[in-house]
Amino acid sequence: LNFGISHVDEKEKAEFMTRLLAMEKRGGSVETLELAVLGARRQFYEQQVTEDSHNLDVWMNYLRMEMQASANMRHVKENVDGHVLDSPEEKAWQEQVGRTREGFERAVANVPSSSGEKDTAWRRYVFLWLNYAMYEEIWVEDSEKARSVMETCLQLLRRQGIFSAKAVLHLVGLHLRQHQPSSARALLGSALGQSGYRWKILHYYVEMERALGAYDRCRRLLETAIQKYPIRPDPWILWAEIEGQLGEEARVLALYQSAIQVKELVQPERVWKAYLAHLQQAVIQSKQTLQVLID
């Protein structure tokens, strides 16, 4: 039957799979039954994507099934063969990895025809690429392949005039996990320019430098952001927060006072709220210090 399935047309495959599944239910082992069920589900999804190759929901369900099959086969391989290269389990695992990769490549080949990064189709399309990269990094443990996947994704999006912060930040994360902060900085710097200093990118960049202890870089990034877009409240608030963390009280006060003087400041109440919260905390700390001195 397995030979027959690979040599008949699409209409007859469903009948063959039904017969194979029935046979395995009657006399097969748990493993062969699971494989039969997997084959039947593959046939179902193949029919669905053949009818509508741009149905990203079907592709995602199909690929989730293949990723789960990869996870199951990897678990069997690691518990049976002890990483023996020529074992049947290793060969089955490699075949499944190839099948899953092929599925992702087929799925991402269906580029949405609509325009605009806020379009739902584009968001789902980017989600496919993210899952592809995560599969390579987590299950296959191939960070280089994962990075190549995301670089290809960004190149494609750039040609379509689409910017995806999620895609950029996922690639940045890959560079950081490979201990390549310089590459991550280059990506984030380019993304800031492309996105018009989008807050999600800027915030990630500043917090990355903050985690690395590069506070002068944080200051330069936020200073540039404020020079370009002084009416945005978030850079003011974050910069003041960082200076407060470093105990630079004079800088904190100067930043808040400069921010509230910006005439067209967006959501000035947020800056005022942060300013007052800082002053309140400063008063509490002063009282505590004074109490310690008195005691």
Protein described:
With 295 residues, the protein is an all-alpha fold. Helices cover 79% and strands 0% of the residues. It contains 14 helices and no strands. The longest helix is centred in the last third of the chain and has 27 residues, at 268-294. The chain is elongated. The termini are far apart. 25% of the residues are buried. The mean pLDDT is 87.
List keywords for this structure.
295 residues, mainly alpha
The secondary structure category is: mainly alpha
Shape: elongated
The tally of beta strands, per DSSP, is 0
* N- and C-termini, Cα separation: 89 Å
Largest β sheet strand count, sense and barrel closure: none
Mean pLDDT across all residues, rounded?
87
SS field, number of helical segments? 14
Strand content: under 5%
| Gyration radius, in Å | 27 Å
Order of helices and strands: HHHHHHHHHHHHHH
Uncertain residue segments: none
Helix content: over 70%
